[in-house]
Amino acid sequence: MAKMNMLQAINNALDIAMAGNERVLCFGEDVGAFGGVFRATSNLQQKYGKDRCFNTPLVEQGIIGFANGLAAQGSFPVAEIQFADYIFPAFDQIVNEAAKFRYRSGDLFNVGGLTIRAPYGGGIAGGLYHSQSPEAYFAHTPGLKIVVPRNPHQAKGLLLGAINDPNPTLFFEPKRLYRASVGEVPDGEYQLPLGEAEVLKEGSDVTVLGWGAQMEVIGKAVDMAEKDGISCEVIDLRTILPWDADTVADSVLKTGRLVVTHEAPLTGGFAGEIAATIQERCFLYLESPIARVTGLDTPFPLVLEKEHFPNHLKVYEAIQDSVNF
Amino acid sequence: MTTTKSKTVYTPAFTDGSEYRIPTFKLLKQDGSLYKGGKAPDIDQEKALRIYHAMVTTRILDERMLAAQRQGRLSFYMQSTGEEAAIVGSAAALDDADMIMAQYREQGALAYRGFTIDEFMNQLFGNELDYGKGRQMPVHYGSATLHYMTISSPLATQIPQATGYAYGQKMAGDGQCTVVYFGEGAASEGDFHAGLNMAAVHRVPAIFICRNNGYAISTPASEQFAADGIAPRAFGYKMDVIRVDGNDILAVYQATEAARKLAVEENRPVLIETMTYRLAAHSSSDDPSGYRSKEEEAVWREKDPILRMQHWLKNCGWWSDDEEKELQERLRREVLETMKRAQKRPPPPLDSLVSDVYDEVPPALQAQYEKLKAHIRKYPDEYPKSADHVIGGA
Predict the structure, then answer these.
(1) Nearest-CA distance B126 → chain A (Å)
(2) pLDDT of residue B2
(3) Are residues B256 and B360 in the same domain?
(4) Is this prediction's ipTM beyond 0.85?
(5) Same domain, B385 and B288
(6) I need a surface site. Which of A150, A210, B32, B64 has the fewest CB within 10 A?
(7) How far is A132 from chain B (nearest CA, A)?
(8) Which of B105, B140, B278, B389 is catalytic?
(9) Are residues B310 and B367 located together in one domain of the fold?
(10) A28-79 pLDDT, tens digit each
(11) Does B158 reside within a domain?
């Protein structure tokens, strides 16, 4: 075990993947000798050479199109999009190509080796274009997997899981936690399962569900609620698509209440999908309406970021409202 | 149906286009004298000093605001150091009512148009007077009165938009054109191709100015494209193109002036590649020591575009050391005083969170806003930027 921050854990996962399989390649804008603007790919070019870790021209649609081709050929591309906000020029390559490669060819061809890494989320004074959480756009696309880690240990295990998963996977990294989140990470190779939520804390009064950086926010809110005598069950969804409805439903059948939180706007956010499924599966057990604590239905602001943000106070209030409904 | 008018040959002859090398247009040597055979554009003293003033303003603003960022007074900053001639020189050759669509490093064009230091500061600090209402990161300026489209961070998106804007100008017959700036890195985006191809097909009055400054963050131009710069791409679109020494204020001015004539009088879009160097870091978040040498930077410091213009002004008898000293001191003082003023101003009001998403706030968003206000009333100490405003009754 070693203490690592999330960037080091991601770098370590990439290192292990490249060492273990020479068909794993890492590329994107500034990821080569410089090691990426956040340094997630530090020293990989030095270690594995320019053919396996390299800078691309500045063209996101090209990066993902290129990665699709590589994956179809049997390689394991790990493509970096510098910020999740800049993934949209590649939307066509992800939504119409990566997600449908296997289906449209009757499984003659697939891009299962593809992993797309992108830092997402707010809280870093990034304004409109360095703060977005675009997971819901992609969650509407069958054929993709979407994974979001909450800490260094999870980041390493889930990223290795994503690289080795035989489906194209989007791996959204909570950049606010890149250096802020530090924890023990096992040294060697390990994989954490995709498609499985994790119950972080058992409780009886209310289920509080999130993913990625929101798990830290939930932690603070739950500490406040527990001081009020509310017993919270905390779940990290970890994989947005395909998502683990069983674990969430089992929890809500027990607690009768659900609070879901994400940074992305309310309308069309993934919390809506969760709420619809859970009310279907737990209707007669629900003690209060499923609450969503999210960003406003606006672009991500700058100066008033704190007001916009679904912070621990807003989550705490939602827990209170849910229990006192 | 094929549209080529090519000759037929009977052996497989390939070409990579390298038989035609695009030359670089220069007028001004570093000592302020003209190259032999070069003729200075028709710029009078007043105009020359307006250009110079904008360049020096930009340089000082960049120096002071990076320092302010380092002191923690500002969240972020981007300098344009070394590229002032490419930016101001081209803006100066336009009509002041021509549309400018910039990338994010073209504060010099705004300074030339008359954006005040107060206006720069209000955006940088995102205060209540920021035209963008504190929503975007620093340096995302915009001014409707100065015909300067508000900056968007995603790269190259402004390029096809410039083509569309220029088409609208052509339809309106208003005699204006659109000038769009972008870096050599952004030129790799698909939007570059879309924008230039459509401009050539639809014959729009647009000028595409590439600031080839050598780097896209850490990525050198040599890893961005295999070709000889950006200029040769114009051939593929059948677009007029010129490559200019971007640190040469007179060459940039003259090239842009001529390009504007082609664009406005003949609806011929033009690509201008200005060869320059990003002397500063990409942004305050970047440290170039990780990817390039001090020696390389030093070579380009010797080609300082502002000093080059200063030498020329002095050769013309239009500028003196005393005037230089006075200008520098005055601008430094003004920047500092203005910064203090802007920093003290309150942030935009809370309702700026929900306005302008649409022309009117939709009911669902209004409900979210009411809920937010109730929340802030309950926890006023947690929201110092907006609590007074909410409790004040807005």
Answers:
(1) 6
(2) 61
(3) no
(4) yes
(5) no
(6) B32
(7) 13
(8) B278
(9) no
(10) 999 999 999 999 999 999 999 999 999 999 999 999 999 999 999 999 999 9
(11) yes
Domain range for B354:
350-391
- How many residues are there in chain A? 325
Q: What confidence score (pLDDT) does residue B187 get?
A: 98
Q: Specify if B199 maps to a domain.
A: yes
What's the whole-model pTM score?
Answer: 0.96
* Shared domain check, B177 and B148: yes
Class of CATH domain A2-185: alpha beta
Same domain, B102 and B225: yes
**Structure token digits, residue A102:** 């296997």
CA dihedral B250, B252, B254, B257 (to 10 degrees): -140
Alpha carbons A198 and A135: distance in angstroms, whole number = 19
Do the Cβ atoms of A37 and A59 come closer than 8 Å? no
Q: Identical fold at A2-185 and A198-323?
A: yes
pLDDT in tens, B291-302: 999 999 999 999
B306 and B356, same domain (yes or no): no
Beta bridge pairs of residue A79: A27, A116
Please say if the pLDDT value at position A320 is more than 70: yes
Nearest to B55 by CA among B249, B211, B245, B317: B249
Residue B260, CA distances (Å) to B178, B209, B246, B263, B266 in order: 9, 12, 17, 5, 9
Q: What CATH number is given to the structural domain containing B87?
A: 3.40.50.970
**Within 10 Å of residue B67's Cβ, how many Cβ atoms?**
12
By the 8 A CB rule, do A319 and A136 touch?
Answer: no
For residue B354, which residues of chain A lie inside 8 Å, CB to CB? 296, 298
Contacts of B386 in chain A (CB under 8 A): 304, 307
Domain presence at residue B15: no
Angle between helices B321-344 and B45-70 (to 10 degrees): 50
Sheet of A115-120, strands arranged across: A53-55, A24-28, A76-80, A115-120, A169-174, A145-147, A239-241
Residues of A whose CB is below 8 A from B348: 303-304
Q: What percent of chain B has pLDDT over 70?
A: 99
Kindly indicate whether the domain formed by A198-323 is annotated with CATH number 3.60.10.10: no
